[in-house]
User: Which sequence fits this backbone?
């Protein structure tokens, strides 16, 4: 289909002309009611990677379709769609954010670790603080899986919390702090600085011990998280 064609362009490094990309964009819009969550995510990501300036009306059509199929959209697809929009310089509509919040609130209790993380990152990229009920469910999901997630993803959780500007529950903070302290010997300089950056944004007194340890083991280099 169209999504696979666009994906092929990005994988093969095809230099499609603006005229061709516009024609494909128009074709996508005309067939939008047939798009699955995966097709939507692939198409938006491809247009972004191909540096194609998608028309405002087309962006609106993509977002309306995303709202319509939100209930069947996986957390990873939500994250991909929101990331593509963000990197295209487009703000996700209130309707889209609301739809994603509503369906995620019902589904998060059954999510695996990867999907919970994707949901955190999706809202973080929007600098959006989820509704209290959803945030609590996300925290519970993260607490269930935090011992299993890779170190890189653990650092990503701190980044997401800082971007969303939320103060997690004391229980989750303790779990995250303990896991991070246990990983201190295996963390590299960049990872430590990224966590330290997140803590500076969260400004939570209860994390003073973790912050003190990080300050004693890191330099003053600019963290990668500050550049995202």
Assistant:
């Amino acid at each position: 289909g169209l999504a696979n064609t666009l994906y092929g362009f990005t994988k093969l490094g095809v230099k499609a002309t603006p005229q061709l990309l516009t024609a494909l964009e128009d074709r996508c819009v005309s067939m939008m009611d047939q798009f699955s969550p995966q097709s939507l995510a692939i198409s938006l990501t491809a247009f972004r990677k191909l540096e194609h300036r998608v028309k405002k009306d087309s962006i609106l059509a993509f977002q309306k379709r995303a709202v319509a199929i939100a209930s069947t959209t996986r957390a990873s697809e939500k994250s991909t769609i929101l990331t593509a929009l963000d990197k295209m310089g487009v703000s996700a509509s209130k309707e889209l954010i609301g739809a994603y919040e509503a369906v995620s609130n019902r589904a998060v209790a059954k999510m695996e670790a990867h999907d919970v993380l994707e949901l955190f990152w999706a809202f973080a990229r929007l600098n959006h603080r989820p509704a209290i009920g959803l945030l609590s469910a996300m925290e519970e999901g993260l607490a269930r899986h935090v011992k299993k997630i890779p170190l890189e993803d653990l650092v990503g959780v701190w980044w997401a919390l800082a971007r969303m500007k939320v103060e997690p529950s004391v229980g989750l903070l303790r779990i995250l702090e303990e896991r991070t302290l246990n990983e201190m010997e295996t963390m590299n300089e960049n990872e430590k600085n990224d966590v330290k950056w997140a803590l500076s944004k969260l400004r939570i007194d209860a994390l003073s011990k973790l912050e003190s340890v990080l300050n004693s083991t890191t330099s003053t280099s600019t963290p990668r998280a500050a550049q995202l």
Notes: Residues 60 and 163 are 26 Å apart (CA to CA). The longest helix spans residues 94-107. The radius of gyration is 19 Å.
